[in-house]
Design brief:
By secondary structure, this protein is an all-alpha fold. It has one domain. It contains three helices and no strands. The radius of gyration is 15 Å and the shape is flat.
């Protein structure tokens, strides 16, 4: 990811999961918008931009709503 896109991501005021509906949707800069709206393999996209990428799955499977916590 270009340095400019990383800088933009760091400057975003991230909302808590329960607060996002209260806010007016904001326009994201194009470099950030395309990363956050990725619909294909994020791993493959990151591999194109990284010298080395290692992915360690935390969990691979279906997560029911009841299994989710407050985070």
């Amino acid at each position: 990811m270009p340095d400019a896109a990383l800088t933009l991501l760091r400057n975003i005021a991230w909302l808590h999961a329960t607060d996002w509906l209260k806010e007016t949707p904001m326009e994201l800069p194009s470099p950030v918008d395309t990363w956050l709206k990725e619909t294909s393999s994020m791993t493959q996209r990151l591999e194109r931009h990284c010298t080395q990428l290692t992915v360690v799955p935390y969990y691979n499977g279906y997560i029911a709503t009841e299994m989710l916590g407050d985070e």
